[in-house]
């Protein structure tokens, strides 16, 4: 699942992953991401950090409490790139951090790293 509020970023992510064979589902904010995670089982979640209604930090914490989601990889995709921003993500239960704009090669490397596990 990709949790991203910006339609252009959703389209870019979809385009970047179009030829990978991955089945993508999108959530337009953190609240929807939590609802979708409650209803479905995802192998990996890509999470924007700054979203309306519920940001990615709170959404991650809520998803981590759901049955079966304690170990599911959650990858932050965010413009917040300072070391303290990365630490906030890690403290919330996010496994990895991709800076925006997300470069395709970094996206692929990160997905391979976490999906292989």
Structure in a nutshell:
The protein has one domain (2-115): Rossmann fold (3-Layer(aba) Sandwich), CATH 3.40.50.2300. It has helices at 7-17, 30-39, 56-64, 83-92, 104-115, and strands at 2-3, 26-27, 45-48, 74-78, 96-99. The protein is of the alpha/beta class and 117 residues long.
Please give a structural write-up.
The chain has a single domain (2-115), classed as Rossmann fold. It contains five helices and five strands, in the order βαβαβαβαβα. It is globular. The mean pLDDT is 94. Helix 4 links the parallel strand 4 and strand 5. It has helices at 7-17, 30-39, 56-64, 83-92, 104-115; strands at residues 2-3, 26-27, 45-48, 74-78, 96-99. Helices cover 44% and strands 15% of the residues. A five-stranded parallel β-sheet has the order 2-1-3-4-5, sandwiched between helices. It is α/β, with parallel strands linked by helices.
